[in-house]
Amino acid sequence: MIIYYGAPQIIGFEISSYTAAVVSFSLNSAAYISEIIRAGILAVDKGQKEAAMALGVPGNRMMRDIILPQALKNILPALMNEFITLTKESAIVTVIAVDDIMRRAYIVGGEQYRFFEPFILAGLIYYLMVISLTMIGKVVERRLRQSD
Known about the structure:
single chain, mainly alpha, MetI-like fold, 6 helices, elongated
């Protein structure tokens, strides 16, 4: 809401509701994801970095070939959790009039004077999306474990 309603006062022009939603979700998720990645990199045993340095592996190559693959295995569950949370939080954009699943449920409920069925259907859609993301995460985790 700050980006949609407050930013136009500062920058001097209107922002579309979709742009405000994308910017706000991007900023919020970027903060969480960057912290997840940082923690994953720090979780890799420092002996890995020391061994790479002893072998003369350059810094960029060490990060790309040694540190990040190990960190990815550690951070994948947290990253999948962030994507699932982002999916569920997308219902918030209804407040700034973005036509998402919940907004459509409100509209249908208002037209039919029946809100129970549209909200149950919206909940089912979110549930299926979360289950799908969870299954994709498990498949990726399993493949990463097999590559050891």
